[in-house]
Amino acid sequence: MSATWSQQVQLDEKEKPLAEYMTLPASQYSVLDAERIERVDGSTFRCYAHRVKFFTVEVCPVLLVRVDEEADGCTIRLLSATLDGSPIVKEQNKKFRASMVNRVRWAPDPSSPSSRLIMSHTTLQSSVEVPTAFRVIPRDVIESAGNKLLEQILKVAVPRFLDQLKKDYAAWAAGDTSRKPLGTGEL
After folding, report:
1. Which residues, including other chains, have CB under 8 Å from residue 39's CB and lie 6 or more apart?
2. Is the CB of residue 126 less than 8 Å from the CB of residue 49?
3. Hey, which residues does 89 pair with through a beta bridge?
4. CA-to-CA distance for 16 and 103, rounded, in angstroms?
5. Does the predicted model carry a pTM greater than 0.70?
């Protein structure tokens, strides 16, 4: 199962330039809910996602991600993923694989000299061995539903992430040093 989502958000550049903000260490960003994110080290985070219902089972992904800082933004990579939920879900951890790359970049906005763009291109892939209880459902139906689920997750998560990044930039540019989380962690 896989999904890709690209999106950009426009913002007005403040006195402190977006280029400077986008090169901050990952530990300086303040966009996610502190109750759902644990810092493992300066660039690695454990993320506890909200529960997602898939057919009749609930799944709560726990993600370990690394943020690699780059000159024009960062790349967020999924290092590992485990599934929490009912016993049937937990059994899938041995049969579940996921990968994700989110490239976050900034660029001048060609339509306005005082505006900038923050762009995100995210690819999410996963594979799960189908539990016996669901094997009566044709594989292509399950894969189609899984692809739609992954796409829906990205369609909600990426815009919220970009909006939180935009708000965090505005707070940082205004001199806010509290670095309080601006997001709720919800999808």
Report:
1. 27, 45
2. no
3. none
4. 23
5. yes
